[in-house]
Amino acid sequence: MLGVIAVDFGGTHIRAAYFASGEPPFQAHEKIATEAQEGPEAVIGRLVAAIQAVTPPHTEDLRIGIAAPGPLDHRAGLVLKAPNLPGWTNIPLRDRIAKRIGFPVALGNDANMAALGEWRYGAGRGTQNVLYMTISTGIGGGVISEGRLLLGKAGLATELGHMQVAQDGPVCGCGQRGHIEAIAAGPAIAERARERLRAGEPSSLASLPLTAEGVTAVEVGSAARAGDPLAVSVIREAGEAIGGHLASLVHAFNPEVIILGGGVSQLGAVIFEPLEAALRAHIMHPAYLDGLRLVPAALGDDAGLIGAMVLARES
Ligand SMILES: [Zn+2]
After folding, report:
1. C-alpha 156 to ligand 1 mean position (Å)
2. Which residue, of 53, 76, 147, 288, has the fewest CB within 10 Å?
3. 193 close to 202: Cβ distance less than 8 angstroms
4. DSSP 231-298
5. 211: which residues sit within 8 A by CB, 6+ positions away?
6. Per residue in 199-251, pLDDT tens?
């Protein structure tokens, strides 16, 4: 079977892995810093170096799949904009890498690739209708409908975090107002906790500096798991907001499994319980819940990498 190199990168790290048979597990792996502040040319150079580091000697035939931050046009191989990568506007990444490496390259949005990976090799195995959502610094997602990854006209589907849930809500990282990402992702959780700490509410977090670095979503999550009432309440509110949003998405896509990935979803019951209760409470008809499973992601940090492997293999 054909050898595949998969690459997954973001604002912090570049990861590349070689799958000799086009199936997990990988046989070689490289992880390096993105150094995003150095701009697109330098990052493309490091992507090429990471690919070369895992390429076996004397390779004659190889496919490469890249999971990149979006929005991106997968048909044109173009990264339109990457919020965490300064200078990345309309970068023809697919062709730039293909020219340097000399093998065919396929490009996919990182959240869509994670959905693809979880569907084929993770928590969605054996199903045909998957709703995947990742909740960390941002909220991303991907949808498998009737056995196909939904991409849309230019590959820009399905930005499940950038959907308006509150008309007058806070401004999102994308510039629009009231998106679920601006209400329930990590930075929003941390800001909500800081607001309540500033107002003088007692909490185990009260000794921390009330800055973006001092009180982070990670601290709020740890405090919630330890039973701190303020932290539990903030996480519960985020879970309820996400659960209500998921109910709308279930109405739109009628999945058989909802897979939750990302750091926030690793908090366990403290977020899953309010999230699931809100999801059930906002469903318009019980038929949507018939056989529906809500599960944590199974592949961890490898989901995007494995999805990019599937993309390369099947392109
Ligand atoms: Zn947004």
Report:
1. 14
2. 147
3. no
4. HHHHHHHHHHHHHHHHHHHHHHH--SEEEEESGGGGGTHHHHHHHHHHHHHT-SSGGGGTT-EEEE-S
5. none
6. 999 999 999 999 989 999 999 999 999 999 999 999 999 999 999 999 999 99
